[in-house]
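Sample A.
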Amino acid sequence: MDIKSFIMRVVKPYYAAALLLALFSCQSASRKSFSEAASADSTAVAITQAAPSSNMIMPLNSPARRMLRTASISARVEDLQAFTMQVEGLTGNLHGMVLQSTLRNVEQQSNTYAYHGDSLRMITVYQPEAHLELRVPAPMLDSVVHSIARWAPFTGHWELKQEDVTLTMLANRMKANVANKAATRQLVTTDKNALGAANYQDDKAQENIDRQVENLSLDDQVAYAALSVDLYQRQVAHTETIINAAAITRAGFGTALGGAARRGAMILRDVLLGIVTVWPFLLLLGAGVVVYRWWKPARTA
């Protein structure tokens, strides 16, 4: 066998092996690119299917809409305490909840007059007020407001409001789905940076939790409407007899007379002591008077 035929017999298998290796690498790269493209396409299709179409707008009265309802009412009542308890009882019967119930008497004015020798008459004018914060089932909100207005002799105002949060809740769900897919892609493409991928997933998980909690809060507010109630009663006068402290602590006549005599003696004592204290000045004054009387007749003569 010559050298040329030997070389050709040995080298050809290596060429074949190199060719097969290159072909396998190209196929693997193509499969990876196709897999990533398919994943991106499926994500886009999911988002498109989840997004509402402009031709599929729900009617205003559709039960699928998520409506957040609130209301407020103010009224004047005859018996504030009894009316407040009646409203609280109605809320409990409807399986609602009283979040806050406040009753207070606001003082308007107060006057005190003499009544007897040892007592006074105090008249206080105040206005009873009450404030309630209620949560009632949303379908029963209108009934509760109308019942309060019907029971009260005078209604100052009432207000019913509702807000459509359907799109807000849908947006939260769509963002959560997109974030989950993005987090998966980020984990695949950043497997060389394990710490960065873990932090990224933690951030996305926290965002998903926040959106889910927000949706749960909106679900609760949609199911149970918030009602604010302000009640007041006409001014009420409260009269009571109180002790005249000045009259009770005043001394009797005999005691007062003795005290007056003692005070007079003390005053006389102080006057005498004052006179004795200024005796030199009194002596000079007397001498001046004598000199003046002696000098005046001599001058006229």
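Sample B, a different protein:
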Amino acid sequence: MLEPIPQDLKLEVKPEDGSSEPEYDEASKVVRIPLSALEGPENKRRTKLVLFTCNKCGGRTARMVNPIAWANGVVFGQCSHCKVWHVLSAPNKKIFEEVRYKDEAGMQPEEADILGAHPGGRGGAGAGTDAAAGTPDATQGGDKQA
């Protein structure tokens, strides 16, 4: 389910600190984006701002993502609070399922456990997204760490 964009959400330029990741301050409802996130050839692909809420810790995270991957591929994002990885967008289910379950039967048991492919559980990750992000959860599984 899409969450509405908060009415009092503000965007600010973040002072350069060597990181090109945006920050979200929930107390003041401010997204701080460093200029380096928007400059340079290596960052031209990540132009869509996504805010998501972690299903594990409830923390809110802002990330810049590739809009083409968002619309046609798979986008994963890591919670900035508890470091859990989430599927933020997976509109092309064939790509997602093929990658996720490609060789489940041929995996070594420890690989299957790491990837969440063990019998009795599908593994996976999920996170709620905001209207700024554009789509709801791609999966209904539990969270996993990478």
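Observation for Sample B: The first strand starts at residue 10 and ends at 14.
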